[in-house]
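Example record

The entry below shows one chain as it appears in the dataset: sequence first, then structure tokens.
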Amino acid sequence: MTVSGAADNANAAFMGLIDLTSAGLEEVNMLARRKQWKEAMAAYVAILGRRLKQTRLTPLPDNPRYREDAELLLDNRISLLNSPLVAIGDPIDWLLAPGGDKQWQSHLGYMYFPNCLVQAYQATGETRYRDKWLAIMRNTSDLAVKAPAAGDTSALEDLAADAQILHDGTMEGGGSGQSAPGAKAIFAAAIGKANDVPNAPSYAVTQLDADQAEAELNAAIVAFQAAIHP
């Protein structure tokens, strides 16, 4: 897999964690639907930058539960969109999506959940609220989104290329050196399936995916060679 291909897979994996139908993400959604992953990520980052510049710490929205929410956040637990309490970790796991809920994941990134800490600090003067808020802000400033590690598909790509040469160089028929009727179509499907792995745009291919696809293609090569008449 090329560097650009791995980057596309990583960007696509990150986009899969976001509710792209959310208001304001129309451009990102359009680019993602076109599988223009680099452009989609750039558009998303630009939108986040604009939102950050527009953010105002005060006045904060009214929240009668701010003390309770602040205590829970000190324990690294939050509820978003009336969800059950979710342990978010320390440092926070910014890729959390409980039950695959993309809307919950989006709201985690909206960064309104730490507001309760500011309100609690303003009301009590207790530095533990201030320190927790600062720790979260430092974490976000140091954040580097880690998409699933892409597997090395170079061996699979080489094997698929060799398989294609074998396929194209073999005639179908009943003569010597020819494959049995129908064998080429089956082999072609196996090669296509193998090529789908490094070219998959919707997720980062793991090493297990690459290894399994390589094993399956090797088996298909053996089966096709067995179908060639001596």
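Notes for this example: The longest helix spans residues 207-226. The chain has a mean pLDDT of 81.
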